[in-house]
Design a protein that fits this description.
A hairpin with a 6-residue loop joins strand 9 and strand 10. It is built from 3 helices and 18 strands. It has 2 domains: 152 residues, Elongation Factor Tu (Ef-tu), domain 3, CATH 2.40.30; 103 residues, Jelly Rolls (Sandwich), CATH 2.60.120. With 343 residues, the protein is mostly beta strands. The protein is 8% helix and 33% strand. Strands 8, 11, 12, 13, 14, 15 and 16 form a 7-stranded antiparallel β-sheet that branches. Strands 1-4-7-6-5 form a 5-stranded antiparallel β-sheet.
Length: 343
């Protein structure tokens, strides 16, 4: 493995020592990869199905009419015409995959994980097994960091970042009146009421409630021909609207002094706590549970000894539990006080 950088050495007449020039951007790793190719190394059948090679899987127990295993249907290591054909078919599938021009992920416990492109792929037959097996060799060049964003950009998995997630319907509510905490006076909303960001979505479902009967609201639609639509609130103080072309903004009259609220549907990404997880670490935490008094005045002192010492409380949970006296009787006597009792 080597780091590839763009650099050059210049010798000058006026200097005893040379000058070096290096590009500050180019810096990637290159290394050689080689290995043996055999269908026995593809237990998961990633390249080709074993049945297409004429063999059954290792866990197959098919038998003939005499109850004897059909050995010719089970994989083996013999230098036979069937094995030679199987290895040739598998070798060609691997060779096509190595030369398909797509990025590859190298996963190695010694080198680490790298996103690479392969060049100069070649196959060399192994003479010791009658050229049945081949070894491959190639040059790998790093093409980017092996991280979430880069792998998603090359199509290894669906990009679940904020800008690429599937939008889901979400409901929001805006009240038209509120109490000013400083003055204690009622404050009414007027003008355009949609917060920044929501007006970029196409609101298709809008529901007005508890408004002043006879008042009106202006809806700005995305239809060029319709433009702004005015709706009037009836005697019930409610109005339900479903706009096919979508609404980009809601505007109340400048002199509106009524209450009520509007609930509208918008679309946004479904974000969970797992969306921000990029790594994790395991930590062994000891824990003990104490129920009731148990005659222990100092719980911490009872836990600590010469082998264990409390360093940190990772989590402390206290629950108040109901205490109920339970008595057990048997026919004839109370076992605690030796008093005759009825059953």
């Amino acid at each position: 493995m080597k780091n590839t950088v763009v650099e050059s050495k210049m010798n000058t007449i006026g200097s005893k020592y040379p000058y070096f020039v290096r590009s500050g951007v180019v810096d990637y790793k290159e290394f050689s990869i080689s290995g043996l190719v055999s269908y026995h190394m593809d237990d998961d059948e990633d390249f080709i199905k074993w049945e297409d090679l004429g063999f059954k899987k290792h866990n197959y127990t098919r038998s003939n009419s005499n109850g004897v295993l059909d050995e010719d249907e089970l994989p083996n290591f013999d230098i036979s015409s069937k094995n030679i054909l199987a290895e040739r078919l598998f070798k060609l599938e691997v060779l096509d995959w190595l030369n398909n021009g797509k990025p590859k992920i190298l996963k190695s416990p010694t080198e680490g994980n790298y996103l690479v492109m392969l060049m100069n792929v070649s196959m060399t037959p192994n003479d010791s097994v009658g050229r049945m097996l081949h070894s491959f060799s190639c040059q790998a060049s790093e093409i980017g960091p092996c991280d979430y964003a880069t792998l998603a950009s090359y199509g290894y998995f669906e990009d679940r970042s904020f800008d690429a997630v599937l939008l889901v319907p979400q409901w929001k509510t805006i009240n038209f009146s509120s109490i000013d905490p400083e003055t204690g006076q009622m404050v009414f909303k007027t003008g355009k009421i949609l917060p920044s960001g929501d007006d970029s979505h196409n609101l298709t479902v809008i529901d007005f409630r508890e408004m002043t009967p006879g008042s009106y609201v202006d809806l700005y639609t995305n239809d060029v021909d319709q433009g702004r639509q005015r709706i009037y609130i009836g005697a019930t103080g409610a109005y339900h609207a479903e706009i096919t072309n979508g609404v980009s903004q809601i505007e109340l009259p400048a002199d509106y002094q009524g209450g009520g609220y509007v609930t509208y549907q918008t679309f946004g990404p479904l974000i969970t706590d797992f969306d921000s997880i990029r790594s994790y670490s395991d930590e062994f935490v000891c824990g003990r549970q104490f129920i009731g008094y148990q005659g222990i005045d100092n719980i911490i002192a009872s836990i600590q000894n010469t082998r264990n010492k409390i360093v940190e409380f990772e989590q402390l949970r206290l629950f108040k539990r109901e205490v109920v006296d339970v008595y057990t009787f048997y026919e004839g006597r109370d076992t605690r006080y030796n008093i005759p009792m009825n059953t």
